[in-house]
Queue: 4 jobs
Job 1
Amino acid sequence: MNAQDKQKAFEESEKRISETISKIKNRIAVFSGKGGVGKTTVSVNLAFAMQLEGYVTGILDADITGPNVAKMFGIDDRLVAHENVIVPFRKHGLKIISIAGILIPGQPVIWRGPMRSRAIGQFLSDVDWGTLDYLIADLPPGTGDEILTIAQKMKPDYAVIVTTPQEVSVIDAERAINMAKELEIPAIGVIENMSGFLCPVCNNKIDLFGSGGGRTLADNYDVEFLGSVPTDIDVRILSDNGKSILHEKPDSKVAQCFNQIAHKIEQCIHSTQENKKYAQT
Ligand SMILES: Nc1ncnc2c1ncn2[C@@H]1O[C@H](COP(=O)(O)OP(=O)(O)OP(=O)(O)O)[C@@H](O)[C@H]1O
Ligand SMILES: [Mg+2]
């Protein structure tokens, strides 16, 4: 492909991305700084919460080298394309895209940043998302290329920063907040995940990773504190089995937390958009 053809292909792909984005009302990026703090768990459960409220919701697995979204939905099918357009997986009414649907299980993705960014771009340009109320992007840990690509191409309305209460996670979440600010994502919220563990034997609350780090961080940076989600062994067991606590145990504390957080995000996006409209008049 010569330089002119490459430029043309790029412009066509950007045009398709714009068309995709124009049909998605609200876009959310979930990131953290530190690994293993619960980004994918949060992304999947927020998507469920929004879908249960009646919103048409999609989830884009932007973690190209460690894609876990499909596993948490219990999906092990292959992605298929119809007339050159990729058809998202469907589960409980949600639309889901993950590179896991193309990979052979156990196969590593050994790609440099530009390749990973291209894959994310394709998830926006070549996927039949249709019309969505919400699209949630689950990002890998850190503040790398994937977040830049999501910021530039998906143009999120809201950045959800996930942290555990402990200091090493909060320090990394601080970087994530600063990155979201630099990328001019209009609204930012912090979730403190794995916030205390309710012992099923003695019923005492044990602060495995400390407590309060998420709220202090949100206050220090003047961003919204979305809430704390406790550590619950059912979350881990259910997600390992491709099930959501929102469906299986809707009355649990964790399910209630996710519902409340989803509601807060919806309200915040709505008021940010209203303010923007007001400022433009
Ligand atoms: N509130 C919770 N209670 C119990 N287990 C949890 C909770 N949140 C997450 N987990 C478990 O912790 C593990 C890590 O969660 P998850 O994969 O969502 O983290 P992550 O931030 O997406 O990780 P990575 O940085 O690798 O993408 C999973 O096994 C998940 O089931
Ligand atoms: Mg993850």
Job 2
Amino acid sequence: MKTYRAGVIGCSRMGGFIDNEVVGYARIALPYSHAAGYTTCDRTDLVACADLRADVMAEFGNLHGVPAQGQYTDYREMLAKENLDIVSVATQPEPRAAIVVDCANQGVKAIYAEKAMAASMADADAMVEAVERNGAILNLGTNRRYDTKYDRMKEIIDSGELGDLQQLIIYNVGPLFNNGSHFLDLILRLNDDEPAEWVQGHLPDGDSIIDGDILTGDPEAEGIIQFANGVKAYVLLTGRRSETEAICSLGTITAFNDGSEWQVRKVEPVGLRGRNELQTAAAPVTPPTSSTLRAVQDLVHALDTGQPPRGGVRAARAGNELIFGFIESHLLGGARVSLPLAKRTTRMVRDHTPRQPKYKPD
Ligand SMILES: NC(=O)c1ccc[n+]([C@@H]2O[C@H](COP(=O)([O-])OP(=O)(O)OC[C@H]3O[C@@H](n4cnc5c(N)ncnc54)[C@H](O)[C@@H]3O)[C@@H](O)[C@H]2O)c1
């Protein structure tokens, strides 16, 4: 079997060092960073990396075994010289589209792009166009799509034992690009990647960070998403962080604390008159597995077989469309906006200084 040559663009926390932030944290199974995913996967060799910060990249090289001749401050030079099969784009969203387009145009066949996909819908469209025109594939780093805990949630919904899926609830979507991208992707997956027809939203701090077509920050949001199959999602901003619920015609399934605990309730006849009520039922127990490794293995499987990846560039764009749906609805005073959006020029442009990654665990 072929071993695929992998490279990482953006060698900071998610690119190479985030494992050091979560050592001993039972909820996240390692490997977590892209680089650790490639060095753990027995079908990939991490041979090159690129970052504008040479000092951070040198530490990355030491940690992950990429020699100095495989380190580039210009990712285009890396793409031209290294004949890479899989490339990660673990930068912030603002530069992501240009880099992904360059990767696809340079013949990279598999791209593992971090979330949020893109800083505008125009950027997301350019990524879809370049990936598809070049016959490449892309998985977005929305880890819950590759997480066995949430696979189990989807299996229970799909089994029909709770009846038909009717509503999905995200209890705290958080900042849309940073945190919301994860949970919006999760509800897309739980609902079989059905298209969304419309979104209605409110950004509590939106007015202070939107200037014309420019967003100067990552806004929080609350609102409603209507899917084409009739399922509705409620996107909330409550104290229940990382909690998600599916409400079906005959029961509910709830993830507490990002799936470290679960509750399943089923409609049962109770009481003297046999009235139906929701009763607690057996909940799944699924130990954590590395969702980063599974995302890498999914790309390897797609390259081996020619089958589509689990995520794909269109599912990535659908999640980005929900983010911008909330923003456009807010700009229209909370009006319902139809998807796909007609306006694709609104763009996030933050004054972002990259973080200092943690080179060693505590
Ligand atoms: N999936 C997850 O669980 C998860 C967790 C953390 C972060 N993330 C995501 O990962 C991405 C990166 O986050 P971070 O905290 O590591 O970011 P960061 O801001 O600390 O680092 C970004 C890195 O990209 C580099 N970079 C920027 N432009 C570049 C270019 N043109 N060429 C080469 N390198 C370039 C910067 O120098 C920097 O080192 C973000 O989109 C974030 O949302 C995902």
Job 3
Amino acid sequence: MSEAAQPWDGARIRDLRASLLAFFDEHQREMPWRETSDPYRIWVSEVMLQQTRVETVVPYYRRWMERFPTVRTLAEASTDEVLRHWQGLGYYSRARNLHKAARELQAHYDGALPTSAAELKQLPGIGDYTAGAVASIAFGKAEPAVDGNVRRVLARLLDEPSPTAGELRRWASALVDPERPGDFNQAFMELGSVVCVPRSPRCRSCPVGEYCRARRAGTQEERPAPKTRKPNPRIVEVVLVLRRGEDRNCEVFLRRRPADGLLGGMWECPSREANEGPDSGSELWKAQVRRALQGLLNEIGTGSDGVDDLGDPRALTSVDHTFSHRRVHYHPFEVAVRPGRILRPPEGSEGYCRWVPLRDRTRVPLPVAQEAILRDLELRLAAGASLS
Ligand code: SF4
């Protein structure tokens, strides 16, 4: 931390803390996790809130706590059930890590969270931010917790365009209130959410405006400097919607994605990447689709049955989905299995391949785009619409 970046002495720091805590005492928003001191609940809320808005998190949090009210209930749940309760919240590694960590806590800590940030960081999925937030809010430890909101407020208070993670952590450590560290960290985040917002910060009603260098310099809109990000690549995937049965009582073939990686552990209609030609209606594109579908049939081990045996692939409505680092354009194709054909999943594949009644798909965790594809199929079947 440079000399120039240390604008406050001890007395000013105490005043700044008092101003921020007074703001929090008066203006904090009601949130279900602010009504508890249970470290498990605070931990779950902090994980859910990463990259996700408060309004989105609240109903998920309530449902989660109804089903998994303790570390033990979470540890004993199946992966499918955990992912299903996370379905739609995105960044599914968060749910998988919560589950893994709960199992470790149950096995080694009798279901209780450790109280120090250093120990918390030993658990899967807990980094500096979550450890600091849980240690300060649940256990009253004077630890910093730097999330995106705090980063923005600090960069403005100190008028620094590109503070490093180390600098931010040092500044936040110097500021955190030793008497009320949890409230202080939440106050900082709250300030970033409702006052020191990314565009047009409300400096006139800011409780710490008198300490703010960027406000004095008129540079608040430029702090922190925007990160240069490469545009997300666009990927095209062909999706095999394999159906057996004639109406909405039909079954669809699902397989589970590998445990790690994007959407790890979720179920889906098998898909694979394709190169989209300039014209999606071209013969070249159709040939590519058939190759991709045949490849998927081979992958899922349905024997020698090919697409030609099974009937014509028919296009369903395409779906776009944006992940944190890529945009995916899904081209789903429905392939109906002819009556009399069974197409058993390969032997020993029960854990990762199965036929699921279309109506019962809510019993397995499905990515948002896959649910959209299957809902489209269900509506078409219900309407008796032509699928061509
Ligand atoms: S004065 Fe303005 S820029 Fe500075 S911390 Fe407050 S809201 Fe943010």
Job 4
Amino acid sequence: MITEAINERYTQLSETSCCLSCGGAINHANPQTGEVCVDLGSGRGNDVIRLAEEVGETGHAYGIDISKGMIVKAKANIEKFEVKNATILQAELENLPLENDSVNVVISNCTINHAANKQAVWNEIYRILKTGGRFVVSDIYATSPIADEYRNDPVAVAECWAGAVTKNEYLTMLEKAGFKKIIIYEESAPYEKGSAEVASLTISGYKPEE
Ligand SMILES: C[S@@+](CC[C@H](N)C(=O)[O-])C[C@H]1O[C@@H](n2cnc3c(N)ncnc32)[C@H](O)[C@@H]1O
């Protein structure tokens, strides 16, 4: 149900140019020549194209998204700008179609809050990152737990607020996944969204040596 609501909402939004981001994750990712990068919830593909340009022809950028419309739009944009070192894949965040220890940097902007099993998503990010690899994620958190009546409401989750967890829960998931050196680069003041109060943050962390 939630996946269907997300597909419907974002397929409609794929043909618009409205801003769907909640922070500047890509500005802190610092991709290097030759690196492999992934954007989770890549939308229309703008950040994938920027990552691909920054890593150059010896690197690669993957965009992963669940919504059909976004996949079509992102592939069209990559073709339009003749980007050769980028690939768009349709998949859920909890089951990433990438090899273990294969990625240098994962970014994501305003997406992980939608996932039904966020711990599984963080475990997947950890799995695909190489040792020493990093993530930089912009996302939202709830200033207090989302009421039960909204938490599993597919439309409210698709609207980018009802799936939010508290900041403490967010940080606990990163720690459980195994990430170290957690840095919060940006954090907004709380604001009203739907029937909740949320805030945005941009956060990074590293996959340490075993
Ligand atoms: C708010 S938009 C952000 C798009 C893009 N990152 C940006 O900043 O413009 C969220 C994106 O995440 C995708 N998405 C939401 N839930 C997802 C899931 N469980 N698995 C994969 N993609 C998902 C949506 O289809 C949508 O394209």
